[in-house]
Amino acid sequence: MGACLGSAAGAMAGDALKAAGDAAGVEVPEDNALANMAAEKMQEAVEDKVAEKVEAKVDAALEKKEEEPEVEVAAAEEEAPAEEAEAEVEVAVEEPAAEEEAPAAAGGEFDDFLTKLEAIKESHPDNLCCKYLTRELFNSYTPEEQKVLYNCARTGVENEDSGVGAYAMTPSDYETFSKFFDPLIRDYHGATPDQKHVTNWDASTVGDNGVLDVSKLGLDPLSIRVRVGRNLQSFNLPGMMDQAERIKFEMMMLKAFQKLIDDPEFGGNIYSLTPDFGGEGENPNKISDEKYQELVDAHVMFKDMAADPYLASAGIASDWPYGRGCYMTEQDGFKFVVWFGEEDCLRVMVMGKTTRIDHVFTRLKKLLDTIESIDGLEFATSADYGYVTSCPSNLGTGMRASVHIPLPNLTADGTDAKAKEAAKPLGLSVRGTGGEHTPIKDNLVDISPRGRL
C-alpha cells in the first residue's frame, strides 16, 4: 500500500511541479529528472508515514533547479491548481486512522451552570440532580448531547430547593443519559441496581381481597383520585416540544377523544385552552377564561403552568396555553378526565368522593384500556423503568393515587412542612389540593405514595 501511495503521490507531485512551472513561465519537461526525484522522495515519505514532510521534500527538490527564482517558485506554489490539494487529501485519507477523539469538553458555554451545580451539591444535598450530575460526567457527552442534558438538569440548578430536579426531554433520554438518570432513579424509588419494573394491575392481593375501604380506618368518604402519566413514542416529551409540535399533538388526540365521545359508555366533552391551530384554522373546542377557572376550581383542569418556576425551567410550561386542555366525562358520580399538554403528554385519571379506593382504581383501568386500544397511540416504555414519564419520580406505573384529607395539627402554621416531615418516613408525599407546589388551604392536603416504580 505504501509503495502504491508513494508512486501515486510522486506522479501527483510531478504533475504539480509541471503546473507550477507553467504558472511561473518555466518549461518543465514531463521526463524531467527533478520530477522523478520528487516522486522518489514522496514515496519514501508515505512509506515512513510522515505525510507532513512531503511538501518540505518537494520544496527541497525545487530549490536545486538552477536559475529558477525563489520568488517565482513560491508564487507558483500558491497558484498551484486545486488538483494538488485534492491529491494531498487523497493521500492523507489512506493513512492509518488516528485514535477516536473524546467528546469536546463543555468549555465556557456551560461553565457557569456547572459551577452553580457544584455549589448546590454542597448547600442542598437532597437535590438529586446536583447529587448525581458531575462536571466530569457532563463533559463526557458530545456537544449536542450536552445541550440536551443541560435542558434535562436545568430546573434542578435554577431551583436549588428541588427534590428531584431533572426532567427527560425525549423518550430515549433515560437510555442516552443512563449514567446520570439511573442512580438518581434508583435513589428516589429505593430500587436496587439490578431491579426492573413490572406493571401489575391485579389488586386482588391488596387490602381485603382487593377491597380498599377507608371507612375501616374510621374515615368518612374522601375525595379520591387515581391517575397515570403517559407519553407517546412518536413525540418529544413536553419539555422539548415547540408550539407547532404541541398543536400537532393536540390535533392528533382530538381524533382519539372523538372515539371516546362516540362510545356510549363514555361520551363527554373536550375543553381546550389553545387560542388557535395556526395554519390549520380556528380551535372549535376553545373555552373562555371563566370556564377554565371553573374547571380548575373543580380540580378537573390543571393550573396555569407558566406560573410554576420548576416547570418553566424545564421548558414544560413553554408556549402556554398552546396544546393544553382536557377531555372529561362523568358517570355515577365519578369524573373521567384526560389532561393533554401538562407535565406529561397525557394524564389519565378518575376521581370521585367515596370510601372505596378500589372503585376509582377499576374505573381508571377501564378508561386506560379503552385509550390504549385506539389506533395510532403507542405509549413510550422502557425495559427497565416501565412507562416513560417526564419526571423520574413518575416512572414505572406512572400512577399516583391520592386522597384529600384535613390535617389541622400538622398544617396549623399554614404550611405543609410538618406534614411532609411526618409523611416521608412512611413513603408518602404531601402537596396542596391544587397540585404540586400549591399552598395549603383550610388545613386540607393531598396525600399519595411517593414512588411509582
3D structure, described in words:
The protein is of the alpha+beta class. Helix content is 40%, strand content 13%. It has 16 helices and ten strands. It has helices spanning 2-24, 33-47, 54-63, 70-78, 82-94, 111-123, 128-132, 135-139, 143-158, 173-176, 178-189, 243-262, 289-297, 309-313, 357-372, 417-423; strands at 222-230, 269-272, 325-331, 334-340, 346-354, 381-382, 386-387, 399-406, 428-432, 444-449. The chain has an eight-stranded antiparallel sheet. Strands 6-7 form a two-stranded antiparallel sheet. Strand 3 and strand 4 form a beta hairpin. The longest helix is centred in the first third of the chain and has 23 residues, at 2-24. The protein starts with a helix and ends with a strand. Mean pLDDT is 83; it is low at 1-39 and 64-106.
SSE layout:
Blueprint (H helix, E strand, L loop, with lengths): L1 H23 L8 H15 L6 H10 L6 H9 L3 H13 L16 H13 L4 H5 L2 H5 L3 H16 L14 H4 L1 H12 L32 E9 L12 H20 L6 E4 L16 H9 L11 H5 L11 E7 L2 E7 L5 E9 L2 H16 L8 E2 L3 E2 L11 E8 L10 H7 L4 E5 L11 E6 L4
Antiparallel strand pairs: 1-5, 1-8, 2-3, 3-4, 4-5, 6-7, 8-10, 9-10
